[in-house]
Task: structure prediction
Amino acid sequence: MTKNIEIRPVGADERAAWEPLWNGYLTFYKATLKPGATDTAWQRFHDPREPMHLLGAYVDGKLTGIVQYLFHRSTWTPGDYCYLQDLFVDSSARGMGLGRALIEAVYEKAKAAGASRVHWLTQNDNAQARILYDQVADNSGFMQYRKVF
Result:
C-alpha cells in the first residue's frame, strides 16, 4: 500500500502530535531538560523573529517524524550556517525514507536562506543513523567538546 508522505512546518496547533516525538528523541539520547526548555523551544519554533524552525514528516496525515534546525552566524563566511539540531522518526515509520526527506527539506530551507552549510552532530555509536548520514553528507572528522552550566 502506497503511503502519502508530506514534509511541512509543524503548526502551532500541533503540539500534542509533536511532543511524543520530541520526548522519544530525548529518551533516545537519555537527555533531561531544564524545566521550561520544551515550552521555550515550542514558542521559538512559532515566532517568526526566531532563527529556530521545525518541520514534520506526515504519513497519511499523521506526524511521524521531526527535524528541528536553526540558523547561526559564522566567522568563516558572510552568510549563516544551518545547524540541524534534532532529527527523530517514530520507530513505526522507520525505513520509509523520512529521515532522508527531512534532511533534504532542511537542505532546501538552508539554500533558500542563503546558508553556506548544513551541519549536525550524532553520537559515535548511533550506527543506524550514521548509515544515512554517510550517504547524505560528509563526516567532518571533528569531535565535540562541551562544558554544561
The chain is about 30% helix and 25% strand.
